Amino acid sequence: MDFKFVNSKISLNEDVDANKFLANRVVAKNVQQIKDLFLEHGYDLTKVPGEFVKTLTLNEKEAVELSAVLDEIDKLGLKDIFNYNLRPSSFKRSFLDRVKYCLENHLPFLNGDNTFIADLKNDNMEVERKEDIAPSYSNTELDEEDLEVKSNIIKTLGEINERATDTMLTFIISSIITNLDMAIKKSAKNYRVLGLRSVVEEALMGVALTPEMQELVNNDILNAFPKEEERGL
To answer: What is the pLDDT along the chain (233 residues), one digit of tens a residue?
Structure first.
């Protein structure tokens, strides 16, 4: 459905109750300017979550900051991920700084469904402390053999990341690490036959990859985990 402002409108997801956002019409003065910023950066605003309406209420000063944030997201190659998370908090400078911190320190910052981890949304989070950013998952269901597999995969990914010159590669590696426990459990020891590559491929399932990202996966990541037949096994 369309949510109308004085001189513009936005289409909301079908399940959104527009009445919850009526108050935003009063304070929204630069709706088309804000929309144009997103459109110029290639964002898909065909259908947006209700929360996005609040983003359209930014004032002139906030719009300048938004423009700079969108530019930096482009440089990081993360536009598709942020487009999937069209929430006002996602486009604040402080939020982007926390994402960059995760990238620089090889910390996962996405859930398995490509939404941002909850801790990133906490304005009071201390970015200097890695333990405050890392997602809370447990190794309790992984036995000694599983943990060795996990360690070997992370070691190889770390070596790849040390050589990386593309921040998008760091993002992909972070996503793999985020999903690694799940992938190992799902493997049910089949990695003994199929090799570590099968676990890495499973960890990538559900991660939204652009063609450019898929090329990085093929050339820089999967090549480091050859198929079993390629190893002569």
So the answer is: 787 887 788 888 888 887 887 877 777 888 899 999 999 999 999 889 998 999 988 988 999 999 999 999 988 888 888 998 999 999 999 999 998 888 777 677 887 677 888 888 766 564 444 344 344 344 457 899 999 999 999 989 888 888 877 777 878 888 888 888 889 999 999 999 999 999 999 998 877 787 888 999 999 999 999 876 544 44
Predicted TM-score (pTM) of the model is 0.61
Q: What count of Cα atoms within 13 Å lies in the side-chain half-sphere of residue 75?
A: 8
Does an H or E element contain 114, and which? none
- What tokens appear for 199 in the block? 């676990």
Give 113: exposed, middle or buried? Use CB within 10 Å, 0-12, 13-18, 19+. exposed
Q: How far apart are CA 136 and CA 133, in angstroms?
A: 9
